[in-house]
Design goal:
Elements lengths: L2 E2 L2 H9 L5 E6 L4 H16 L5 E6 L4 H6 L7 E6 L2 E7 L4 H8 L4
Parallel strand pairs: 1-3, 2-3
Antiparallel strand pairs: 2-4, 4-5
């Protein structure tokens, strides 16, 4: 299951995570964000134990979005050992996301 994360939880859930974390920066009004949501839910289930998937609502957490330079959504950032190692902007089919994530898992 994809967990909603706030700025107060970000360090614990993402930066201090033992496994890689895919962060989906999204907003309620964003069409492509709604398209990518079920893909991320599937990915979260299929890659449990290898990858954690969380969401950050950019409208509610604008300071976090600003800190990571989020200019358009959806933006997915992969964090490993507290560092951003990959960024994907816009909707991507599941297989394409997996290919981009694989080298970091």
């Amino acid at each position: 299951m994809v967990k909603q994360v706030t700025s107060s939880q970000f360090k614990q859930e993402v930066l201090d995570s033992e496994q890689p974390v895919l962060v989906d920066f999204w907003a309620e009004w964003c069409g492509p964000c709604r398209m990518v949501a079920p893909v991320l839910e599937e990915l979260s289930g299929e890659m449990e134990g290898q990858l954690k998937v969380v969401k950050v609502n950019v409208d509610e957490e604008s300071s976090l979005a600003g800190e990571y330079g989020i200019m358009s959504i959806p933006t997915m950032m992969l964090f490993k050992d507290g560092e951003s190692v990959a960024t994907m902007v816009g909707f991507s089919p599941k297989q394409e996301l997996i290919e981009k994530l694989k080298p970091h898992l």
